[in-house]
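Handout, section B. The chain below has 310 residues.
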Amino acid sequence: MKALADLQLFVATVEAGSLSAAARRLGLTPAGASAAIKRLEAELGVPLLLRTTRKQRLSPQGELFLGHARQALDAIEAAQAALQARQERIAGRLRVSVPSDLGRQVLQPWLDEFLDRHPALTLHLQVSDRLADVFGQPVDILVRYGSPPDSTLVALPLAPHNRRVLVASPAYLARRGRPASPPDLAAHATLCYTLGEHVHDHWRFHAPGGAPLELAVQPSRVADDGEVVRRWAVAGQGIAYKSALDVADDLRAGCLELLCPDWATEPSPLNLMCADRRQLSPAVRLLHAHLLARLRQHWPAALLGPQGAA
């Protein structure tokens, strides 16, 4: 268990930004925390943190080890949650924020399934593309695309290889033609979403040969709701650059078609995030496992493959 505590301290140090902050979070003395990191480094035989009197940073070995350490802690905590769930009823309130399109289309029925399994649990669901403030708002966990905007947030991967894809409806393509490559988008109607004052109108690609390309599109329609953008695309109003998970069902049903599949697209990993590892309660751990299993069933390629898969 001492080795487990040392792993927890190492990850907490990276997340908190300093060893002293991690020590305070875990209720350790600075001397005890320093000794634990040195003990872990001695066991591994490599330096994990490069420290000066004012700052610290991960060593190359520490960067490599960090991902494995997080996976190990996640696996142990998931196992503990599963054991605890067998011994006691999962109850209480769970406040979850999800993105609009994925939340309404995909996550809501999966959350309903989860609640059916744990009827003593109360769900407070916030559906919005705006990133909730887990420190200032009544939200326990977030499900969001992209890397955590705040390095102190704890992120549990759900679909780490998910990407954005270019899509349009068959009706639009019959009317306007199919772009052969992303530069052809200049002659097409494009559909964009906005968060606050930022319009997502710079679409990034990599050519089949690997050269990066960033296109500044001129949108014909802009919405602050991802579901509206998807509905416009299904209705034949233009071409959208959406998360693959958002349009998985539409692609299966033939309501939308994938464009320029040979061009690598922008990563859009899906994560479950919270403010502090101590918030990873048995209910949160079980919810993460439930969503992960359903995502794998929903579209395995979104987790297992790079461009062509997601």
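Note. Residues 90-162+268-304 form a domain with the D-Maltodextrin-Binding Protein; domain 2 fold (CATH 3.40.190.10). Compare this with the example in section A.
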